[in-house]
Amino acid sequence: METKLEKRYGLITAIAMVIGIVIGSGVFFKAEKVLNATGGSLTLGILAWIIGGIIMISCAYTFAVMATKYQYVNGVVDYAQATLGKKYAYYVGWFMALIYYPTLTSVLAWVSARYTCVLLGFPITGGECMTIACLYLIASFALNALSPILAGKFQVSTTIIKLIPLILMAIIGTIAGMGNGMIKYNFTTVVKQVNPSTGLFTAVVATAFAYEGWIIATSINAELKDAKRNLPIALVGGTFITMAIYILYYIGLSGAVANKVMMAGGESGAKLAFQTIFSSLGGSLLFVFVIISCLGTLNGLMLGCTRGIYSLAARGLGPKPNIFKQVDSITNMPANSSIFGLLLCGIWLLYFYGANLTKPWFGFFSFDSSELPIVTIYAMYIPIFLMMMKKEKDLSCFKRFVAPTVSLAGCIFMIIAACFSHKIAVVAYLIIFGIIMIFGSIFSNKKTVD
User: Fold this and answer.
1) What is the pLDDT of residues 358-400, one digit of tens each?
2) Cβ count near 43 (within 10 Å)
3) Residue 67's pLDDT is what?
4) Which residues in the chain show pLDDT less than 50?
5) Using CA atoms, how far apart are residues 218 and 220, in angstroms rounded to an integer?
6) What's the pLDDT score for residue 2?
7) 248-305 pLDDT tens trace
8) Is the pTM of this model over 0.85?
9) How far apart are CA 97 and CA 76, in angstroms?
10) CATH of domain 11-449
11) Distances from the Cα of 269 to the Cα of 32, 113, 174, 286, 345, angstroms
């Protein structure tokens, strides 16, 4: 007998998932990238964080509107099916299951291992790091597959823990900076002259990737209590809280050290700021918080990864749907889908290592699997938003036209940003993407899809 997923998650857990998935390792090093892109202009940097936040919030709000109308197994796939039909939904689900979830999950496992190696003094690209990354993948899989309730509690706990250093720096750094004049100095001093438009464009690219991840929370749509009420609140509230935390943390950093010091510090810039405010002990504790932050993000990504192929199988689509739609009667988890997701994570982790961490194994076909899949999902949002504007005639003008238009602009920006940032690697990625999608067409059930 088939067992259906239970309504197990509440509003607090859903908000924690949105915040916890978005706020990861990126917030600790994107500040320096934004400063360098804007020439050390604090005003321009804050503007970049605001623009990136608006893109995130607008897309989240548009999906929140759809969440009040559609509620099935997997949020993004549901929205694609409701607006463009089952065939488009199948390919969105196939992409999410085979590329989006496993690529980001594998990269976060490596990032978590990387900061662990920094703390322990191990090489960040050697065998030790990759071994730890594999262990983190397996541990995260086990937590989600064997005890989903515990995984939810872990998500809430890590979200609270990772917010501690951010909030402390936002408050104490700002107070210290106002007292010693550092914030005023950083607001009125530009380290180097840059083209404002080009600098802002590059900076928003950095913030856009730091903001990514909120959409994964829609994967628990069918497991969320009172989803039509709670998912919109979680999406909009979680993304808004994230933007506010990013901006306040960014200002707090400016109260700790001069912008030119942050710009020269590279990835250690945040550590330097924490050492200035909280002594050398604070710098060491920062790495502990970063690791916890990364693991919390990894947990949220794995949650979506374990349900990836299940979202297709539940519709009778994809390879062996009768196998992958099975839900374990004891853990109430799609066990076969979870194992398949872990396997894909391992494959993409191996690819990431060969393409980015050593002498490229794949030549022309080496690309950054941590960023381009994100841009692809934004591209897939575009027809969903367009059809929503066309079909949902019962919505208000703001919900039907204004919000989706802003979201569309954000999606188009992401595509342009990817071409600007990755250049020829985009072509290599699109070839591999095309092969995987063609392979997916083999498993599309014509009777069900058409």
Assistant:
1) 888 888 889 888 778 888 988 999 999 999 999 888 888 898 9
2) 12
3) 74
4) 1-3, 73, 447-450
5) 5
6) 47
7) 998 998 898 888 888 775 555 667 788 888 887 777 777 787 788 788 778 777 877 8
8) no
9) 12
10) 1.20.1740.10
11) 7, 20, 17, 11, 31
Kindly state the tokens that stand for 344: 């894909």
Query: HEC profile for the chain?
Result: CCCCCCCCECHHHHHHHHHHHHCCCHHHHHHHHHHHHCCCCHHHHHHHHHHHHHHHHHHHHHHHHHHCCCCCCCHHHHHHHHHHCHHHHHHHHHHHHHHHHHHHHHHHHHHHHHHHHHHHCCCCCCHHHHHHHHHHHHHHHHHHHHCHHHHHHHHHHHHHHHHHHHHHHHHHHHHHHHHHCHHHHHHHCCCCCCCHHHHHHHHHHHHHHHHCCHHHHHHHHHHECCHHHHHHHHHHHHHHHHHHHHHHHHHHHHCCCCHHHHHHCHHHHHHHHHHHHHHHHHHHHHHHHHHHHHHHHHHHHHHHHHCHHHHHHCCCCCCCHHHHCCCCCCCCCCHHHHHHHHHHHHHHHHHHHHHHHCCCCCHHHCCCCCCHHHHHHHHHHHHHHHHHHHHCCCCCHHHHHHHHHHHHHHHHHHHHHHHHHHCCHHHHHHHHHHHHHHHHHHCCCHHHHC
The ranges assigned to domains in the chain are: 11-449
Of 230, 237, 245, the residue nearest 214 (C-alpha): 237
